[in-house]
Amino acid sequence: MSVLAALVAVALAAGPAAAEEPPAVPAGVADAIRRLHPDAQVVRADEILDERCGVAQRREQIFRADFDGDKRQDYTALIRIGEPAGKPEEKLRTVPLWGVVFLANRGGRYRPFILFKDEDAMFPSRRVLWIQSPGRVHHGVHPERVLTLKHPAVGSMLCEGTAKVFYWVGQRQTFRDYLTKE
């Protein structure tokens, strides 16, 4: 069997099920999540309230980008702490949700920055994250105000509500938020 034939056979054997599996969380990020809180878990696509957020927002809530411009791949995630409170038969329950950025260090470890904590968030989640590309971002209340992002930023939206971007401020070694929708 030729190498090409073997590769085609492996690809066909994997089938669509392999393509639908969520992306694996790198070991260093998984370790940082466990160190952040022992009951922390990344919000899954099926835990997004599609009636409010739409089907397009139903995706795993972990994203990769270089948020601080150091040429290393960082991660951001929407984290739920523990299991949702309330009766399992209830459609909406509550759970603590945290927005966190994990900045990569040289040794393969990640340093967490908590962007926000919502200790009593509705669940399934009405909050989603995304990556905001570098460039100009207009303020949500004062459109004449413009922020120019040098690096990718973390977008956070309460579906059908407010949205913010969290961007890295190198001189202060922290993230700041900027309202983009009210």
Description of the structure:
Strands 1, 2, 3, 4 and 5 form a five-stranded antiparallel β-sheet that branches. The chain has three helices and eleven strands, in the order H-H-E-H-E-E-E-E-E-E-E-E-E-E. It has helices spanning 3-20, 27-36, 50-53, and strands at residues 40-42, 62-65, 74-81, 93-104, 110-123, 127-132, 135-138, 146-149, 153-158, 163-169, 174-181. It has one domain. It is 18% helix and 42% strand. With 182 residues, the chain is an alpha+beta fold. A hairpin with a 5-residue loop joins strand 4 (93-104) and strand 5 (110-123). The model is unreliable at 1-22 (pLDDT under 50).
In short:
This protein is an alpha+beta fold and about 180 residues long.
